[in-house]
Amino acid sequence: MRQLAGRVSARAAVWGTLAVLLTWSLAPIAVMVLTSFKKRGDIFAVPARLFPSSWTFDNYQTVLTSSSMPQALLNSVIIGGLVAIATLLFCFSAGYALARFRFRSARPLALFILLGQMVPLTVVLLPVYQIVSSLKLLDTASGVAFAHLAITVPLVTWMVRNQIAAIPYELEEAVQIDGGSRFDAVSYVTLPVCAPGLAAAGMFAFLQSWHEFLFASVMATSTASRTAPVALTQFAGEFDVDWGATMAASVVLTVPIVILFMVMQRYFTAGLTGGAVKG
After folding, report:
1. Tally of domains in the chain
2. Rounded to a whole number, what is the distance in angstroms from the first to the last CA of the chain?
3. pLDDT by residue (tens digit) across 113-164?
4. Name one GO cellular component term (predicted).
5. Residue 229 is assigned to a structural domain of this protein
6. Domain assignment of residue 39, yes or no
């Protein structure tokens, strides 16, 4: 009887903890969504109300018709796509070399690349700005995408390297014994096997670019190349903030990435755990 009571108490504690964590995680999202449907009077009502007294789509109309947010969303999609493609191209090549080619400084070099992920972005902001400026890519989508590679390349290289290292090299040797080249082994064995990991890496790179603010705010100065996180600042003036439009723009910014994550959740989970055993 005492053991049964202990199990019930432990299970209740687990469910209580999960409920608290779920509330902690979803409460800001609920406030964001509900505020986006409120009129200005409801947002600043005292006492504060969670639900609007009268629902309105005026904030979404402001965001979609009277601001640069649609253009900024398109820029974010283009830049995120460029970053994901370039990251996969660069990091697959580097990750394969680090995982397959045996040379003395392979592991120290891999650790050194990973250190780039631990450096604050403000430290590398000026060097990256000078490189982008020298390439005459300032205020362009390509320049912002190039800057975002400084964020994605270090960790994605490590992720891809672990994915490839977890694949038995004997599979590639079998292709070469049958007369195939190393390129054939990579094309017909390595790439298909680590495809979920590459999908996760590409999604990770896209997400990093999608919500990045610091580089995008410095590299892009006009609406032609401004990304969505930077465009959110247009609803804040010197003395006033349009919280309804800000929350509506935040919802518009969040929905596409949630849909993308739900579609690719299976690949993302498999990719993150696929190379966790062998490092």
Report:
1. 1
2. 47
3. 877 778 888 888 999 999 999 999 999 999 999 999 999 998 899 888 888 8
4. plasma membrane
5. yes
6. no
Q: Could you report the per-residue pLDDT of 17-54, keeping only the tens digit for each?
A: 999 999 998 999 999 999 999 988 888 888 888 888 88
CA 176-177-181 angle, 5° bins: 20
Compute CA distances 263 → 203, 252, 268, whole Å.
11, 18, 10
Q: What is the DSSP string of the chain?
A: -HHHHHHHHHHHHHHHHHHHHHHHHHHHHHHHHHHHT--HHHHT-SS--SS-SS---HHHHHHHHSSSHHHHHHHHHHHHHHHHHHHHHHHHHHHHHHHH---TTHHHHHHHHHHGGGS-HHHHHHHHHHHHHHTT-TTSHHHHHHHHHHHHHHHHHHHHHHHHHTS-HHHHHHHHHTT--HHHHIIIIIHHHTHHHHHHHHHHHHHHHHT--HHHHHH--STTT--HHHHGGGGB-SS-B-HHHHHHHHHHHHHHHHHHHHHTHHHHHHHHHHTSS--
- Specify the length of the chain in residues: 279
Please report whether residue 16 resides in a domain.
no
Other C-beta atoms within 10 Å of 122: how many? 8
In a domain, 129, yes or no: yes
Which residue in 211, 231, 212 sits closest to 71, CA to CA? Answer: 231
The CATH number of whichever domain residue 168 belongs to comes to 1.10.3720.10
pTM for this predicted structure: 0.83
Output the average pLDDT for the chain: 87
One-letter amino acid at 159 equals M
116: its two tokens: 């780039």
Q: Which domain holds residue 199?
A: 67-237
**Backbone conformation region of residue 268, classed left if phi is above 0, alpha if psi is from -120 to 50, else beta:** alpha
